[in-house]
């Protein structure tokens, strides 16, 4: 890592720690990062995160979309990041649900993307049930990037969605913010 990159990483970590002590905390820091990122990069990476949009979430480490699949060993729904891109891949389509406090839920036919007990999981639900608390995410911009964002668990602060180069969920979702495995882009389907 370059000298400037190391300083930048340390500055972001210090600001993040400070933000947890400031009134407004993480949400305030997220808003400030979003503003700085927009000024540096010139584009809002959250452009497709609107209520009712159907998006695909593309892992920057695998280059593929997050999709729902059935585990061959447990016969349960799981997710990976080796899905295809486009309308012909419905297992990789996520409906965006926004909360009044600027957080997000992502589901595919009420199967929610979530972090539960420190692991990336799919939580099945129904139209009549309230969204699972483990599925609520705070979306943060990657500083200096026009497209990349992070998905941090609201239920488990400090835990981020992350997939390795093979598309498998990261062993430990509590990963460093600068790690490429926790960076994603979004594309709209409809």
Key descriptive features of the protein:
190 residues, alpha+beta, Trefoil (Acidic Fibroblast Growth Factor, subunit A), six-stranded antiparallel beta sheet, two-stranded antiparallel sheet, 2 helices, 18% helix, globular, disordered N terminus
Written overview of the protein:
The protein has 190 residues and is of the alpha+beta class. It has one domain: Trefoil (Acidic Fibroblast Growth Factor, subunit A). The protein is 18% helix and 29% strand. The protein has helices at 3-19, 25-41; strands at 54-59, 65-70, 77-83, 94-98, 104-108, 111-116, 119-124, 137-141, 149-153, 184-188. A 6-stranded antiparallel β-sheet has the order 7-6-5-4-1-10, with no helix packed on it. A two-stranded antiparallel sheet has the order 2-3. The protein has a two-stranded antiparallel ribbon with strand order 8-9. Strand 4 (94-98) and strand 5 form a beta hairpin. Helix 1 packs antiparallel against helix 2 (25-41). It is globular, with a radius of gyration of 16 Å. Residues 1-7 and 37-42 have low confidence and may be disordered.
Question: How are the SSEs ordered, and which strands pair?
Answer:
Layout: H1 3-19, H2 25-41, E1 54-59, E2 65-70, E3 77-83, E4 94-98, E5 104-108, E6 111-116, E7 119-124, E8 137-141, E9 149-153, E10 184-188
Antiparallel strand pairs: 1-4, 1-10, 2-3, 4-5, 5-6, 6-7, 8-9
């Amino acid at each position: 890592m370059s000298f400037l990159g190391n300083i930048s990483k340390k500055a972001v970590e210090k600001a993040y720690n400070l933000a947890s002590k400031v009134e407004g905390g993480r949400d305030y820091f997220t808003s400030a990062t979003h503003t700085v990122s927009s000024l540096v990069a010139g584009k809002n990476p959250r452009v497709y995160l609107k209520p009712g949009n159907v998006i695909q979430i593309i892992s920057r480490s695998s280059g593929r979309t997050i999709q729902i699949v059935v585990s061959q060993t447990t016969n349960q729904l799981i997710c990976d990041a080796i899905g295809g891109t486009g309308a012909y891949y419905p297992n990789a389509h996520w409906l965006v649900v926004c909360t009044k406090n600027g957080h997000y839920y992502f589901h595919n036919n009420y199967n929610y993307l979530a972090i539960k007990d420190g692991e990336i999981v799919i939580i099945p639900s129904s139209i009549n049930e309230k969204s699972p608390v483990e599925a609520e995410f705070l979306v943060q911009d990657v500083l200096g990037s026009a497209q990349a964002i992070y998905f941090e668990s609201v239920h488990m602060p400090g835990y981020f969605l992350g997939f390795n180069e093979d598309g498998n969920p990261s062993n430990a979702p509590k990963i460093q913010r600068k790690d490429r495995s926790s960076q994603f882009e979004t594309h709209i389907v409809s």
